[in-house]
Amino acid sequence: MSSTIDLHCHTTASDGKLSPQALITKAQERNITTLAITDHDTLAGFREAQAPASEAGINLISGIELSTVWAGINVHIVGLNLDPNHPVILEAEAYQKKVRIERADIIAERLGKRLKHDIDMDEIRSYTQDGQIGRPHFAQYLLKYELIGSFAEAFNKYLGAGKIGDVKSGWPDIPTAVKWIIEAGGVAVFAHGHRYKMTRTKLRSCVQEFVYAGGRAIEVAYGTMDSSQQQHMVALAKEFNLKGSCGSDYHGPNRFGLELGTMAKFPEGITPVWETF
Predict the structure, then answer these.
(1) Domain-by-domain residue ranges, the chain?
(2) pLDDT the model gives residue 129
(3) Which residues in the chain belong to E strands, given as ranges?
(4) Contacts of residue 208, Cβ cutoff 8 Å, sequence gap at least 6
(5) pLDDT tens-digit series, residues 77-94
């Protein structure tokens, strides 16, 4: 279903296909009234979208999706309604960018050896805004040079969880990311918990650490979430007294086949995180 509130989406500031301006235009077309741009490890997209969002009459919420590592697994923590110019967040962005640069070099080296192809990092950087390289940019490169047959194949074979391109070194732990968000006055949200390849017991332990660190919300309505997955996230929200967040995780055309604002219906009995803004 379509929602007028979308608190998880991306722009060209990270691995999205639309510029911040174009995303605001898309939000207008989709009748979205409250939007959070949550680019990976940067608030650049939010900053650029502030003026056009104001002109469009859209309530734009500051957001960021921070990469962390827990028990050897990449876990994403979304920060909402935080001060985009707080010194802690500016330092966090600089740190995450440095990690991304180092990580990209490792991914390129690993892929080059596996595919016997000299990966052109300058070309991959040209796909990004401000050099904010993510795994989708590598997939784009591999697809261009016909080293894989589809975007999905790139992740299934080389870039997805547990594959050679899944480099975790350097990312902060969950408590560190949550601390950054809280110190900048924001709300920490546990992102797309149903997508991590964890047992229920392990996921519960991960969410528990997030809550102990000060996390206050969990995504309970998400673009590709089915009813069983949603029930699991709702159960965790109730067990740990977490507020609920929602988002499409929209990256642009042809990305997961979703439109901005498309997600499961927000569940009853869960307090929406946006009521705290």
Answers:
(1) 5-93+169-276, 94-159
(2) 74
(3) 5-6, 34-36, 59-61, 63-70, 73-80, 187-190, 217-222, 243-247
(4) 240
(5) 999 999 999 999 999 999
pLDDT in tens, 225-256: 999 999 999 999 999 999 999 999 999 986 55
Classified by CATH at the fold level, domain 5-93+169-276 comes out as: TIM Barrel (3.20.20)
> What gap in Å lies between CA 37 and CA 6, rounded to an integer?
9
Q: DSSP for 81-118?
A: S--TT-HHHHHHHHHHHHHHHHHHHHHHHHHHHHHT--
- d(CA 97, CA 53) in angstroms, rounded, equals 26
What confidence score (pLDDT) does residue 181 get? 98
Cβ(241)–Cβ(214) below 8 Å: no
- From first CA to last CA, the distance across the chain in angstroms is 24
Q: Which string of DSSP letters, residue by residue, matches 10-40? A: --TTTT-SS-HHHHHHHHHHTT--EEE---B
**Which tokens in the block code for residue 73?**
């697994």
Report phi then psi at 61, rounded to 5: -100, 135
Instruction: Please tell me the distance from the alpha carbon of residue 98 to that of residue 203, in angstroms, as a whole number.
Output: 28
Q: Output the pTM of the full model.
A: 0.90
| Phi-psi domain of 223 (left: phi exceeds 0; alpha: psi -120 through 50; beta: other) | alpha
